[in-house]
Amino acid sequence: MATVATCGGDAVGVGSAVATASKSNVTSFQRRGPRVSGTNDSGPRLVSITGTRPSVRNGQLLVSTGLPALDQLLGGGLAVGTVLLIEEDKYNIYSSLLFKYFLAEGIVNGHTLLVASANEDPANILQELPAPLLDNCKKEFDEDVYNHKTPESNIKMKIAWRYQLLPKMEQIRPVSSSRFGHYYDASKRIPQELIEASKWHGFFLPEKISPTLKVEPCSLTHGYIKLLQFIQNIIYEEGFDGSNPQKKQKNILRIGIQNLGSPLWGDDICCTENGDSGHNLTKFLYVLRGLLRTSLSACIITMPTHLIQNKAFIAHVTNLSDTVVGLESFIGSERETNPLYKDYHGLIHIRQIPRLNNLVCDESDVKDLGFKLKRKLFTIEWVQDNYLRQERNIYPPGFSYLLKQKDSAWGEGSLQHSTFLMSFLAKATAFASRLVRHSEPLKQTGSGRIRQAAGPRLWHDGRRQEAPGLLGIPP
Amino acid sequence: MLDSLLALGGLVLLRDSVEWEGRSLLKALVKKSALCGEQVHILGCEVSEEEFREGFDSDINNRLVYHDFFRDPLNWSKTGEALPGGPLGALRAMCKRTDLGPVTIALDSLSWLLLHLPCATLCQTLHAVSYQDSCPPGDGSPVGKVHVLGLLHEELHGPGPMGALSSLAQTEVTLGGTMGQASARILCRRPQQHPTDQTQWFSILPDFSLHLQEGPSKEFQPQSDPHIPLVDPMAHLTFNLHLSKKEREARDSLTLPFQFSSEKQEALLRPRPSQATSHIFYEPDAYDDLDQEDPDDDLDI
């Protein structure tokens, strides 16, 4: 009790705590568990909406894009309030598949959908969505996944044995409704009852715009203005921007816009080289991003950038979008015959990842990503993985096909191979550790000067110690 | 394949060039669909009506519905016969047709329309005409397929409009050939499926019927051979990649210095004399080179 008297200001608080402790005969520390009272928790807690989760890095609310592999590459998922732009492949096969995965994920999670298209009726688009994978289908999936594995993959790694412990790319797991990302069967259609149970709004441009008879140099923004008004109305009426406070259950609006920028929207950015009307699309993206940032929604846009003649314009569009993913399919190109790419249908390029409330973005350091559409699944993998199913991506790009040859002088198990590998690894790690140190914040030394981290340092206790060229050993 | 072009519906682009003209193929396809009993509409913009109709016999000529925009494209003579709205109005009127049955619309030529109309408007109108199965199902009866055949001179347009029209088209037929033999490279884009690419040799008979052929004789084959040789990464290497059997055995029996064998595992698990982790203390003196580029750079070998 003497300590209570000397505390002063907060004596009351301490006193009462001690008093309760002496009364109830338990410690004053209480385990945080389920509250017995069951009243509404009024503290600042994250809104828990189905199908979302907070990012582990910065707490941003994320939704799944429908492909768990793509979620992993984007740093956990698509942030709510942002735009995912997909640069279409030449024949629009795989980009429309990603579009459908996004919408199907919305249906499975119970989100509201808004589908806008100029060439297809949104009702038809919804009919073609892939069916979600259920638990009892896991068996057939295992066969699908494992039938392409060669017997070599069972050999344990001899040199890079530590990499066996690394997690592999996303494996197929059965779905349950509480999980964040779901898997879909691309060969089956979504069951009709799921579509009917879901809430969706469609915007089909030819219905909304009546064709006028005279040939005007089209008010090109007409289609875009209509679409923006439609989106704004839906957001306002259904309360996605918080304007309807009596709604108890918050939900996410998933917006999908197909083939934006194609001539069917009335935009001639794909037709002309000089693009004097290119501002329509950029204005649209700007206003759309403003609408999204003030509401609980996420948007996917597919754009035929291979048709856009003005390459600087593509840079404008990339800057105005948040996440940009480009798809490049091998159909008809010379890469189809390259043995390096023989198991893949195309490459996927992550062109931009946004920095939301961050200084750095969550970019994965893998640059060669290929995708393939198997009969049922759409998978994304490192291209190197195709050759290096045993050893993980520790080989320098460009040399992997040499080092893979089992019966060559450079093959795995040879002294040349391991020496080459170790020297490469040493250089790579030293380079990487130097980069990591460079990005550390400015440090103050004892003399009061602010000094920048200029090289690899080992300790931060004020003593300047450097070991040039050696691998950084953590304290 | 060429004769089943019309079975798919949608927009068919016939791309021709100066060397290989496509109007005769257009007329052959028009004749074919007229003989099948379809309704045929022609938008004639580039050549006169007499020139288009020549070569057809009278029963086919009676079936063709010809919209003439060659003689008076801007409707200056203000007679009642010209359609209001020009070719675009005519196309839009075809969107709103009420009679059923398959229809073929031949555009002669799409190049003329591209040069006179804004590209985006033309694309929207072509899309509205070709995709008429998005009609409301209240009709009950299915509307027949619409085939739109467009003749496009590919040398007149830049990559922008050509790309835009190609993405819109269901089928693209590019005319070419060697040594007097005409060929058609048919690229068929079905929705959500891989595009198919075929080459068909053909010739057009004087009465505009299509005659499919096998192809030119064998000595011309390598010119038109589209097969790309497999890229071989093993070629042009300065070192040997193949081992003989003895070398392979010797290599397999070698123990590698960095391999995690059982001896090394025991060495690691044995309690070490000093438990402290390794520290490296380094005090750089005045003459030290702190260049971090390559630690081995200042080695003097």
Structural notes for this entry:
Chain A is of the alpha/beta class. Chain A has a domain at 52-134 and 179-270 and 277-394: P-loop containing nucleotide triphosphate hydrolases (Rossmann fold, 3-Layer(aba) Sandwich), CATH 3.40.50. Chain A is 30% helix and 15% strand. Chain A contains 14 helices and 16 strands. In chain A, the strands form four sheets. Chain A has a nine-stranded mixed beta sheet with strand order 8-5-9-10-4-11-12-13-14, sandwiched between helices. Chain A is globular and about 70 Å long. The two termini of chain A are 44 Å apart. Chain B has helices spanning 23-35, 49-53, 58-63, 86-95, 110-116, 119-130, 159-168, 245-252, 262-269; strands at residues 10-16, 39-44, 64-68, 103-108, 146-153, 171-178, 181-188, 196-204, 210-213. The termini of chain B are far apart. Helix content of chain B is 26%, strand content 20%. Chain B has a nine-stranded mixed beta sheet. At the A-B interface, α14 of A face α4, α6, α7 and α8 of B. Chain A: One of its GO terms (cellular component) is transcription elongation factor complex. Chain A: Keywords: Cytoplasm, Nucleus, tRNA processing.
